């Protein structure tokens, strides 16, 4: 699977792309994240998807480029990407094996 458990950097990039280009408010990301989990998406990639949805929207980037300048917009975007990766990694580690197994049992038939 492109964004499955062992999808690596390709899966991570695709998860961020999907989150950044998704339309709608943040609360719509959560039922989609649940569906992704049920379909076998890796937990790390689900965290990346929700993080990108909340902080890396393309319309926001375009607004920032116009009103705050290219340098600010791209630095903020890059820092957001790094932050999302770090937070996704930290949450996955904080859950531990037991927490990850519990989520798998809950969301995967």
Comma- or semicolon-separated keywords:
mainly alpha, 109 residues, 5 helices
Describe the structure.
This protein has 109 residues and is mainly alpha-helical. It has one domain (8-107). 79% of the residues lie in helices and 0% in strands. The protein has helices spanning 8-21, 29-38, 43-55, 58-68, 70-107.
- The average pLDDT is 93
Q: How many separate domains?
A: 1
Point out poorly predicted stretches: none
Structural class: mainly alpha
Chain-wise SSE layout:
Blueprint: H1 8-21, H2 29-38, H3 43-55, H4 58-68, H5 70-107
Brief summary of the model shown:
The protein has 109 residues and is mainly alpha-helical. The chain has helices at residues 8-21, 29-38, 43-55, 58-68, 70-107.
């Amino acid at each position: 699977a492109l964004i499955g458990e062992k999808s690596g950097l390709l899966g991570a990039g695709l998860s961020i792309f999907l989150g950044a280009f998704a339309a709608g408010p943040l609360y719509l990301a959560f039922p989609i994240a649940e569906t992704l989990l049920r379909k076998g998406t890796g937990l790390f990639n689900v965290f990346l998807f929700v993080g990108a949805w909340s902080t890396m929207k393309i319309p926001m980037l375009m607004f920032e480029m116009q009103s705050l300048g290219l340098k600010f917009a791209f630095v903020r975007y890059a820092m957001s990407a790094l932050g999302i990766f770090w937070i996704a990694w930290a949450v996955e580690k904080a859950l531990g094996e037991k927490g990850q197994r519990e989520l798998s049992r809950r969301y995967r038939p």
